[in-house]
Give the backbone structure.
Amino acid sequence: MQTADSVKVKAIAVRAVPYGESDMIITLVGVETGKITATAKGCLKRGAKLRYAAEPFNFGDYVLAGRGGRYVVTECEQIESFGAITADIERYYDGCLILDALAKLSEQPAPEEFMAALNALSRLAYSNEDPDAVIRDFLLTAIEIGGNRLDFAHCNACGRALEGAARFQDADGIVCESCANFGSIEVEAPLRAFLAGESGQTHAIGLRANILLLEFVHIMLGVKISARYLTEQL
């Protein structure tokens, strides 16, 4: 719903920074609007009605007053807080990575990326799934939405089933060592196994594999997502 001076957006708060004595500048990613910035006035005051609306991870229907990119939050009907993510430090770091990725992937409206992020946050908050696997699936989905697909179980050049180590090259994706060109990036055997969805990998292996996957996102999509949320866990 939109009028001359207000807009309603279904969005996730991906970032919030203090502004002045009591305001917050929040970055929202909306399913139909992409990234948008708004001021949450007075939300740092004790008992502020809209404090929750300025919390990262908040998902809700925001009503923004203003135009031309200058907005103020006037209302927010919370759909989900994903508060359970903040109770576990590893899941919190992983959730922050998803917010960072969503912000950088959604400069323009990107419904598929939005839904992928929403699904990943739900899995982190409400399932017993391995958080490393959640991040892996989210990043692989982002790559696929971007028009590419990485198969860590088969060589993309010759079709051979992969065992042990593999290589990554921009033109072909994941290939066996026999098909690799000079300058391709090594994917060590345990990392390849984790990225292929094989079980039995440790948390340290999952972290290293996802850090490598962030490098592939940068190469294939041109989007630099911070790895510090993962390196902090090593």
